[in-house]
Amino acid sequence: MSILRRRSKVQNSSDFSDSGKDREDDKKDRRKEKPKRKQDGGERRIKKWTCVDSCCWFIGFTCSMWWFLLFLYNAIPSSFPQYLTEAITGPLPDPPGVKLKKEGLTAKHPVVFVPGIVTGGLELWEGHQCADGLFRKRLWGGTFGEVYKRPLCWVEHMSLDNETGLDPPGIRVRPVSGLVAADYFAPGYFVWAVLIANLARIGYEEKTMYMAAYDWRISFQNTEVRDQTLSRIKSNIELMVATNGGRKVVVIPHSMGVLYFLHFMKWVEAPAPMGGGGGTDWCAKHIKAVMNIGGPFLGVPKAVSGFFSNEARDIAAARAYAPGFWDKDVFGLQTLQHLMRMTRTWDSTMSMIPKGGDTIWGSLDWSPEGLYNCGARKPKNNHTHTAIPNGKGVSSFKEGVNYGRIISFGKDAAELHSSKIERIDFRDAVTVKKPANNCDIWTEYQEMGVGGIKAVVDYKVYTAGSVLDLLHFVAPKLMKREGAHFSHGIADNLDDPKYKHYKYWSNPLETKLPNAPEMEIYSMYGVGIPTERAYVYKLASTAECSIPFQIDTSVTGGSENSCLKDGVFSVNGDETVPVLSAGFMCAKGWRGKTRFNPSGIRTYIREYNHAPPANLLEGRGTQSGAHVDILGNFALIEDIIRVAAGATGEDLGGDQVHSDIFKWSEKINLQL
């Protein structure tokens, strides 16, 4: 039996060793097959990698970086950025409020802010089903979260009725009230916040500061018809004067707010029901000074390109770089068409169409700016109290530009003498009416037909005078409302009763300033930044549902200092408003006693040379002359605080001029 047990053990052990060897062989085989499977699987994963994966990774990376930076922002002491900046650039100057408080300045005159277009917040009070949950949340300003979450719903609620220019049925969007309406446009992007903070340094608070917020989309008179905004501004100014010992207010309008307040000054004097019934001496009793910042008194060429093709320099560059995103149906959105449909319902934008026609802006072969060198170097510092005598600004002339041709089709049309350009009048062209439901997104170009579109191109060149006819041709519904609410001409006789109508009140060339000889008017704006003045266009497409015209970004001047770059002619300005528009009225139109300024209100020009921030730690800089960033310019803030504390224009040093505004103004043959 023992022998049998030993044989059984030996056999079992041999079987076990054999099975062990088999298992080891199987393991080796599996090890050999494993890399192959990994390799095969890797190949499959690479093949399955899609654009969605890339987007997810990009979004994940962006969010991770954002949260990391947000963590650093909250973890690092608030004084660290200033410490780091001073370590790099040296000690920072005191903010104007701190500096002037040390000089003993205190709050005196109440201050009224009048925001410009797009910088004021708008919130939803009533909407359609797609806007559920958005009651009293900002549709404009803040984080703009709804633009990303429900873009078509957002466009629908930000648009106005294309016939009336007022609310569409079932939608009510209203301006945010209080200082928060326009202190910040978006988180971290200040508008009025820096100026408000510096005024607070010398004793101002909410009872002595008032934000005259309004719905910047609708026409100026309609802000009164719908919201009684003009009446509210009048009442608040009267209250601030009454509760501050009779001290008059200092009004600070910015951008389109400058035109809005011009309208207000005529409205408040005019008898009811069209006006506020305040009488001809209301402004004299209640306003010390109007300190206009970046005012487009005579309009801006950028408004023309906006109406014509919904473009400006930056949009044109993006459209050329990524045409599929802007022009085609991407993710169900035809971006440019949606924006055009929306913005063409905003009647207020028509107030910024160039005013004065060829007399102000130039003709086919002449413009006030004449020769201008866009590559000229500008001084980098502002000397706040250094006045430069009228007409003695630093000249920077070099090459001839036909700035009077606001729109040209082709480079030759922009540069050739007018006698060498063959033009076919577009006004007699026959347009083909088509049903609005041919396209998913309706624009007025769909009603022109191919013949009408080609007729626009064949006219070749448009000046400020013919631009109005062009807009009537391509956007008849828009311009029908324009004729009811705005005017862009030059008055022959300001005593004509027709100029008592409100549509003339925002045009300084068709209305008189108030009878307030002790009041002061300032024009304060940045200079030294290339600013859009004229455009070279091309026919982009005759497809039925597209925007047919496009700025030709391939067109550039022949020299390094050329004012023609990427299809846009530039001139001196603040990046949005050319010097001519911002400065002419205070340089000539209102200077002394004129038919536009019969009481002789004193006018001053205060120009601020643009100096970009030295490094990223300076943010948007303290010497910026850019259209919005100038609200953080220390020199401008200092001027405003001094006037609010009781100073006059003469105390500031009179005019401060760095451009050729006085020379350009003298070239304009305007009856005064």
UniProtKB/TrEMBL annotation:
**Pfam families, per this entry?**
LCAT (PF02450)
Assigned EC number: 2.3.1.158
Q: What residue ranges are annotated as transmembrane?
A: 54-76
Q: Where in the cell is it found?
A: Membrane
Q: What class of enzyme is it?
A: transferase
**Basic and acidic residues composition bias: which ranges?**
18-28
Q: Does the keyword field hold Manganese? A: no
Instruction: Tell me the GO molecular function terms.
Output: O-acyltransferase activity; phospholipid:diacylglycerol acyltransferase activity
InterPro entries documented for this protein: AB_hydrolase_fold (IPR029058), LACT/PDAT_acylTrfase (IPR003386)
Q: Which PANTHER family match?
A: LECITHIN-CHOLESTEROL ACYLTRANSFERASE-RELATED
Record's family?
Answer: Belongs to the AB hydrolase superfamily. Lipase family.
Protein name per Swiss-Prot or TrEMBL: phospholipid:diacylglycerol acyltransferase
- What organism is listed for this UniProt entry? Manihot esculenta (Cassava)
